[in-house]
Amino acid sequence: MENDDLIQIGTAEYKRLATAMVMAGFATFSLLYSVQPLLPEFSTTFGISPENSSLAVSLATGPMAIGILAAGWLSDRIGRRTLMIYSLISAALFGTMAAIAPTWESLLLLRCLSGIALAGVPAVAMTYIAEEVEPATIGPAMGLYIAGSAFGGMIGRLGAAVATEWLGWRWAIASIGLFSAAAAIVFCASAPASRAFQPQRHSLRSFLGGYASVLRDRVLLMLYGTGFLMMGAFVTIYNYAPYRLAVEPYALSHAEIGAIFLLYMLGSASSAWFGKLAGRIGVRPTFWRPVVVLLIGLLLTAPSPLWLIVSAIGIVTMGFFGAHTVASSWVSRRAFDSRGYASALYLFGYYAGSSLLGSAGGVMWSKWGWEGVTAFTAGLCVTVLAIAFIIARAPPLANPRQPKTGQRLPG
Q1: What is the 3-state composition of the chain as percent helix, strand, coil, each rounded to the nearest 5?
Q2: Is the pLDDT score of 50 beyond 80?
Q3: Which of 15, 59, 117, 158 stands the most exposed, by the fewest C-beta atoms within 10 Å?
């Protein structure tokens, strides 16, 4: 497909795409992380430890990470847009049903099913965008999707916290499920039909070969690692901050803790801003900047004044969403015709970090308190910063679609 046939910024189709991707990000992250401020409530209701309570998050993100690896293969058969529609609707159904789960085990099962269903959205969202928009628009469009993710994460957490304060956690989960169903309907009505997509059928050998091809690139491997580490640090902060703030000397209520998630608006703005910056000056000189912001925020959560803790969480949010926007768009740009496989592996690492490192952060909290959480997350972020400087020096790959110097174009 020629670039002139792809969606461009400012057109009516781009506005429809932007609306659809914001809704997709909103529904995915509100369903996935709305239980985060409820973890202390689960500990009280079911008599479980903080690290066990964190399974309500980890057992959604972990299966989602695994499902992402197969979702790209399925989308090659039925289409990116179609898979995202099915994923959003089924995930909203499972998410709503979790509100009536009679036991802790049944709640975890429904969270697991919701995570598996949601795998179809992040697995193909980047590929859907990369296929349908012109190359210069990938960064801004990706920024809007991630901004929608930040908004959904904010509203999901805040809404669940406020609803729990007044109605209890079951009504909180039910309300998030219904709002996500509404977002899925808007996505169905807004998402442009795929024009660049061509159905493909893969054998098991070609399927595995596709992943092997994007595992040979050292830069892509390190980008997958940054997703794993950044998400682990970010989720750890938001998983256990409610435990810290619910007790003395802060003793904040559910609604007051939930208000902290309004800081996600900073993440929405940051993802859009860093996405535009990467489009203007390139991903290499951009990536380290939001990582530094993330590290500064993590270190500033260590002191005890409440105003500084809240401000630091805001800085963490800005740095994380900016870095995620740049890293994910870098993966899409570098993978060329293997974007689906590369994006799936990046997101596998991303959500595996949420699941594994998020639960590991609970061990740090239980044993060493917030000092342990700070040291753990800062160590992860320092590693990301080192990787950012290493891959910035790696030579870019030549686009296989472009003819080599002196080579005549076909025809």
Answers
A1: 80, 0, 15
A2: yes
A3: 15
Distance CA 28, CA 91 (A): 8
Other CB atoms within 10 Å distance of the CB of residue 195: 12
Instruction: Read off the DSSP letter of residue 393.
Output: T
Cα 364 to the center of its chain, rounded Å: 23
pLDDT at 3: 55
CA–CA gap between residue 341 and residue 327 (Å, rounded): 15
Q: CA–CA separation, 344 vs 355, rounded Å?
A: 16
Q: If 0-12 CB within 10 Å is exposed, 13-18 middle and 19+ buried, where does residue 402 land?
A: exposed
Flag whether the pTM goes above 0.85. no
- CA separation (Å) from 34 to 151, 182, 217? 12, 16, 36
The 3-state DSSP class for residue 49 equals coil
Give the residue carrying structure tokens 């990467």: 278
In this structure, are residues 360 and 345 in contact, taking their beta carbons and an 8 Å threshold? Answer: no
Residue 61 near residue 115 (C-beta atoms within 8 A)? yes
| C-alpha dihedral sign at 104, 107, 113, 115 | negative
> What is the arithmetic mean of pLDDT over 204-223?
84
Q: What is the dihedral of CA 280, 323, 19, 311, to 10 degrees?
A: -120
Instruction: Look up tokens 């998400």; give the residue.
Output: 231
pLDDT at residue 300, as a whole number = 96
Which one, of 338, 317, 313, 369, lies nearest residue 153 by Cα? 317
Copy the structure tokens of residue 342: 């590369």
Alpha-carbon gap, residue 172 to 149, rounded angstroms? 19
CB atoms within 10 A of CB 70: 15
